[in-house]
Design brief:
4-stranded mixed beta sheet; disordered N terminus; single chain; 711 residues; alpha+beta; 14 strands; 5-stranded mixed beta sheet
Length: 711
């Protein structure tokens, strides 16, 4: 009988009465999910529990129910997720926009795109991260720690992609590339999609006290939020391992068996190590604080609800071992990648990119409420659909309702609600007001640009909404409560219309009609949320799918089609004739990175950290060091002035070298071939140091003529 209660299995009312002696007319376990009594269980409850310690523990667990229900619906959901992940990965389907390469190379209708179209704006994917990874498979030997195909002196790949190194065990998103390029792309994409969905689903299950439908729709709403989709899932790895780590930590504290404590300690340690060694401080700091605060809140809540914590020594040992593993793994990674990390730490960008907050604008935070991405072409000073990406946010009006319920009806919110209110309050202060420099430095918020902190708003809001809807109780005065909800929703509608007009001033494509329509939609959703209706979360999920499903394409493979383009094949053939040739590309930021995809050495393109050996040849006196001491897209442009060579940065992540092709410093780079675009060919045609090889439209290839006849 006690085992059935402890496991959360149904027990007849008669047998329950025989077990604990309580009248069968009352069902505390059902009432506790929606009543204030569950937050503060009466002290007399201990009087009704059996005297033995194990029975007392079971009684407490019965009162609170299972921490995370793993019933038939949950098992079915997990089975579907795993089946889809395996199937879609094996079929090499993914959502990356690498087909943008085909368009750049003259193939406007790539066959790899099955639905939608490749997004040129996703430069961080198709010209930065993916070429880095693909170059590892073509390098000889494969998957090195140090890739010599990139720039002058090569790049430490522990910070850029998969390698044959123990730290790759902490890069599960990259494991698929050891199988094939297409499988690697699919594996990484769907791990992000399904991992983010399922990890957030588990978080919402804990917060909502196992409300399955509510948790599923909340996870869908977060997955299809503009911030997640328009950044092409690049935040997914941070969210999913932070969320899984939180779930594991909660179970280390409250699991009922030694076996589960051990398993979850191992899971917590692994997720924590992946999270700390996947470097992007703006996301790591934001999510670290969010889930730490939530963990403290859930712990306080579960203890206050009567969930007993035994096996203190075992739990302490498990947490200590996990934290020790996280520290050791992080230290090992920092030591192995120290050369690259030291260079990055002392760069102008991003090493010296620090902030004290206060520069976030309301239009950056709330523009997604109007689904401008569906029809906007000119983003004004928001710059692009990616940088403007946010969430459909309604948390300010929810905070007002929570305060009203607490003050007017004396309904104290749950600890998870309070924790998310506090977190959102801190984010608002950080974003719109700022903090003293010393506080920003100590808290590491100085490493979180305000625009990147938007990641935290959406996740915190969804946790808040799930917790609020789960906690919402019938009011003592239903008529007054409906009036309060209606009034607050109307005020939110007016606020959104006003905000829409402010967004319209930045994005002229946003019509007044759309502002009013989506303002009214915000009013309706706000009313449903304030009334505690779970359908409000489903509405947010539906709106998210409507507003973002079109963005990322559905593609199948695509790497081979890039390598089979005429220009790509010609570059590879020339490389083989010379043997490990060296190229420089005179164009914009895109084309130099093609060479990583096809396995040929180009000295420019993206430099993830400054290549000082390379720059010393062009700038032996260090005159332009501030320009190139950064993460940068390195661009070559021709200059007709004799011996001209100027290096400058016109953007935080860009360095331009304007040089006469006959400049001695440039010739000292010991290049074999030049690829240039458009009219820049005139400079090479006039020079005796270069011989024209072939052209493909506006792309022209020249061989460097060496006077010593070497290479």
């Amino acid at each position: 009988m006690r085992d059935r209660i402890a496991s959360g299995q149904p027990v007849s009312r008669k047998r329950r009465k025989q077990h604990d002696g309580r009248p069968s007319a009352r069902r505390p376990e059902k009432h506790s999910a929606h009543s204030q009594a569950d937050e503060n269980p009466p002290a007399s409850a201990a009087h009704h529990a059996p005297a033995t310690a194990p029975a007392k523990r079971n009684a407490g667990d019965h009162h609170t129910g299972p921490l995370l229900s793993f019933d038939k619906r949950h098992k079915t959901l997990l089975a579907v997720i795993l089946a889809l992940w395996c199937l879609l990965s094996l079929c090499q389907f993914h959502g990356y926009s690498i087909a943008a390469w085909n368009k750049l190379l003259g193939d406007p209708q790539p066959t790899s795109v099955l639905w939608g179209e490749a997004q040129n704006i996703r430069l961080d994917d198709w010209i930065v991260s993916i070429p880095f990874i693909l170059s590892q498979r073509l390098h000889q030997p494969r998957f090195p720690v140090f890739n010599t195909l990139i720039s002058e002196q090569g790049v430490n790949m522990l910070i850029c992609g998969p390698s044959r190194h123990p730290t790759t065990l902490l890069r599960p998103t990259d494991w698929g590339y050891f199988v094939s390029d297409g499988f690697g792309l699919a594996w990484k994409w769907w791990l992000g999609v399904f991992g983010l969905f399922y990890s957030c689903f588990l978080v919402f299950m804990i917060v909502s006290r196992n409300r399955f439908g509510l948790s599923v729709t909340a996870a869908l709403a977060l997955l299809f939020s503009p911030f997640v989709q328009f950044w092409a899932m690049n935040c997914a790895v941070f969210i999913l391992f932070a969320a899984f780590g939180f779930v594991a930590a909660v179970h280390v504290l409250f699991a009922r068996t030694t076996r589960n404590i051990v398993i979850n300690s191992a899971l917590f340690g692994y997720c924590g190590a992946v999270f700390t060694t996947t470097l992007y401080p703006p996301y790591q700091v934001t999510l670290g604080y969010l889930f730490l605060i939530l963990l403290i809140a859930v712990t306080i809540q579960e203890v206050s609800r009567g969930r007993c914590v035994d096996r203190i020594a075992m739990r302490t040992l498990g947490l200590s071992a996990a934290l020790l593993f996280i520290a050791a793994a992080t230290a090992y990674f920092l030591i192995e990648a120290r050369d690259a990390l030291e260079l990055m730490a002392h760069t102008v960008y991003p090493g010296n990119r620090v902030t004290v907050g206060g520069s976030l604008r309301d239009v950056e935070l709330f523009n997604a409420n109007f689904f401008a991405a569906k029809f906007v072409t000119d983003w004004g000073d928001l710059r692009s659909i990616c940088r403007a990406a946010s969430y459909v946010l309604i948390f300010p009006v929810v905070l007002l309702k929570i305060a009203w319920d607490w003050l007017a009806d004396h309904r104290r919110p749950t600890w998870p609600i309070l924790s998310m209110c506090a977190f959102l309050g801190v984010l608002l202060v950080w974003g719109f007001i700022g903090v003293p420099p010393v506080v920003a430095k100590i808290t590491l918020l100085s490493r979180v640009p305000e625009i990147r902190s938007i990641l935290g708003y959406g996740i915190a809001e969804m946790i808040l909404l799930v917790a609020y809807v789960s906690w919402r109780q019938p009011s003592k005065s239903p008529a007054r409560d409906r009036a309060v909800c209606g009034t607050l929703a109307a005020l939110w509608c007016a606020a959104m219309i006003f905000e829409g007009l402010r967004v319209q001033a930045v994005i002229p494509d946003l019509s007044t009609t759309r502002v009013c329509v989506f303002g009214a939609a915000s009013c309706a959703i706000a009313f449903l949320v304030l009334s505690g209706r779970p359908i409000a979360i489903a509405c947010l999920a539906a709106l998210g799918i409507y507003g973002t499903i079109w963005f990322n394409p559905l593609a199948k493979g695509g790497v081979d089609s890039i390598r089979n383009q005429p220009l790509s094949r010609t570059i590879v053939d020339l490389d083989r004739t010379v043997g490990q040739s060296r190229w420089a590309v005179f164009s914009g930021i895109r084309l130099p990175n093609l060479f990583r995809v096809i396995g040929v050495h180009a000295v420019n393109g993206v430099h993830p950290y400054p290549q000082f050996d390379f720059w010393k040849k062009l700038d032996p006196d260090g005159q332009f060091v501030d320009a190139y001491n950064r993460y940068a897209h390195v661009i070559f442009k021709t200059d007709k002035r004799p011996r001209a060579l100027t290096i400058f940065s016109n953007a935080t992540d860009s360095v331009t070298v304007r040089v006469n092709p006959d400049n001695p410093e440039f010739l000292a780079l010991d290049l074999d071939f030049i690829l240039c675009l458009g009219r820049q060919k005139n400079h090479f045609d006039r020079s005796t140091s270069y011989r024209h090889i072939t052209s493909f439209g506006q792309a022209h290839i020249y061989q460097v003529v060496r006077q010593d006849n070497t290479r």
